[in-house]
Amino acid sequence: MSKITILSDIKSDKSFEEKLPNINHKEFDKVIQSRRSIRVFTKDKIPHDIIKKSLNNSLKAPTSSNLQTWEIYWAKSNIIKDRIVNACLSQPAAKTAKELFVFVSRPDNWKRNNQMMIDHLKNKENPPSSVLRYYQKITKIAYNQGFFNIFGFLKKIYVTVYGLFKVIPREPTSFNDMKVWSQKTTALACQNFMLSMRAYGFDTCPMEGFDSYRLKKILKLPKKAQICMVIGAGKRDPSGVYGKQFRFDNSLFIKEV
Fold first, then answer.
1. Which domain holds residue 120?
2. Does the global pTM surpass 0.85?
3. Which of 21, 40, 69, 99 suits a disulfide with 237, CB 3.0-4.6 Å?
4. Tens-binned pLDDT, residue by residue, of the chain (257 aa)
């Protein structure tokens, strides 16, 4: 972290070029504008191939340092599904959903995934040295908080002092910061999933009204795992849209500086 040019030093693989498909922005606008949080679903089933495509699309979401600290639990067992519905307070969006998905952030998996990135890069022919160095050194400093957060505490002192004179990334310096970091990545996967389901003609409802302790127990999650949201999915029932979509004026949120 002594060099604050670490991000600009990372170079792309010049041998790779990604071809862009033609995009119909009007169709994308339809997906965005028709996505609603559906509270009641019909009994129509979602084809499994559409579910799998949407799950795959969710994992194409942007992810910090490409460390992919997320997990998705698809409740295929009726017993598990019933328990999840109960943990979601038996709300209609969970109770009537044909499928339930629990999106989980796993900040505790960063070290495992970081090593997987290193292994992946080493298996490539002539991997960019700057990228390899990033995972071998920078991420291990940035995301490691140490035993009892001792290293994180030392980092906080360092960035506070150094930041008086230079521009420097100031987080994460605690496991709480790591939870926020991982939740952001997982939330992006949630959005990809919901938009994908809408594009295939189905609907979703993201839920935060749940008992996180019971959900973690149902899914046998470790203590450091964090529930991001539960998403119910299915075919929308007309009664499942509770009203016209309302948003406050854009000027309240969009700031031009």
1. 111-162
2. yes
3. 40
4. 445 566 667 766 667 788 999 999 999 999 999 999 999 999 999 999 999 999 999 999 999 999 999 999 999 999 999 999 999 999 999 999 999 999 999 999 999 999 999 999 999 888 899 999 999 999 999 999 999 999 999 999 999 999 999 999 999 999 999 999 999 999 999 999 999 999 999 999 999 999 999 999 999 999 999 999 999 999 999 999 999 999 999 999 999 99
Q: Domain tally for the chain?
A: 2
Rounded distance between C-alpha atoms, residue 1 and residue 116, angstroms: 22
Give the Cα separation of 96 and 170 in Å (integer).
44
The one-letter amino acid code at 137 reads: K
Q: Look up tokens 């997906």; give the residue.
A: 31
Same domain for 210 and 121: no
Residue 104 shares a structural domain with residue 40: yes
Could you tell me if residue 82 is inside a domain?
yes
3-class DSSP assignment, residue 95:
helix
